Amino acid sequence: MKKVLSMIFATSAAAIGLFFAGSAYASASTIVTVKSGDTVWGISQQYNSSVKAIESANNLKDANVIVVGQKLEIPSANSSSNTQGSAHVAASTTTAQQTQSYSQPTQQTQQATTTQSSQASTASTTATSGSVAQQAAQLMEQKTGVSASTWMAISYRESRNNPSAQNPSSTAHGLYQSLYTTSNDWREQVNDAARIYHSQGMGAWALG
After folding, report:
1. HEC readout, 118-159
2. Structural domain for 35, as ranges
3. Boundary (domain end) residue, out of 55, 75, 95
4. Residue 4 burial by CB count (10 A; 0-12/13-18/19+): exposed, middle or buried?
5. Residue 115 lies in a domain
6. Does one domain contain both 200 and 133?
7. Res 21: pLDDT
8. Helix locations, 28-76, DSSP H
9. How many Å apart are CA 185 and CA 180, to the nearest integer?
10. What is the count of structural domains for the chain?
11. What is the pLDDT of residue 97?
């Protein structure tokens, strides 16, 4: 019976010892009474802590303002380091998330801009090589009675259906390479070509 009681007391004592050891490790802090000449920085150096950790543990608004006799809880270096490490990891994670959230719209914006530019370029090419020349040819047919297909053939031969085409060896300009206009407006070029036709006929384009 005595052996059993001895074992129980020994086990209890060991458990109590482990409990207090764990509590001491968990708290990992020291209470210091401020003396004359003390500063938070000096105390942090003395107890291997940090100014930020002491400020946080004691809710200090200003680390430079402490008074003689004030009780300060001084966290250990381990708890201070863990706190700072966690804060650093959290800050890094937040920064990475913000960077990702801002980079995605930027990439999408660039893609949208590229798509819009491509569409605008395609539309411009179509207007120059197709619809503009066709509209001009149809208007020329109305003004001259010559078929639109003939005027399409002329504009393609003369300018590749480009109202901005300029002959490098003369002042000939536009869809029908007129010598009398420098405008890039295809409607003005049509009016000019119609006047030439009524004055010179198709011979002006070597089709007499």
Report:
1. HHHHHHHHHHHHHHHHHHHHHHHHHHHCCCHHHHHHHHHHHH
2. 29-75
3. 75
4. exposed
5. no
6. yes
7. 42
8. 40-46, 51-58
9. 13
10. 2
11. 54
Token pair recorded at residue 47: 């107890």
How many other CB atoms sit within 10 Å of the CB of residue 136? 24
| Sign of the dihedral defined by the CA atoms of residues 9, 10, 13, 19, in that order | negative
- 190 pLDDT tier (thresholds 50, 70, 90): very high
Integer CA distances (angstroms), 60 to 53, 80, 117, 144, in order = 10, 16, 58, 94
At 6-18, the pLDDT tens digits run: 444 444 444 444 4
133 & 201 share domain: yes
Residue 195 lies in a domain: yes
Place of tokens 């482990």: 18
- Does residue 152 belong to any structural domain of this protein? yes
Supply the CATH number for residue 70's domain.
3.10.350.10
Residue 1 lies in a domain: no
Which residue, among 80, 94, 88, 195, has the nearest Cα to 140 in the 3D structure?
195
CA distance 103 to 200: 64
* pLDDT at residue 118, rounded to an integer: 55
**pLDDT, average across residues 141-149:** 94
Report yes or no: 74 and 47 within 8 Å, Cβ to Cβ: yes
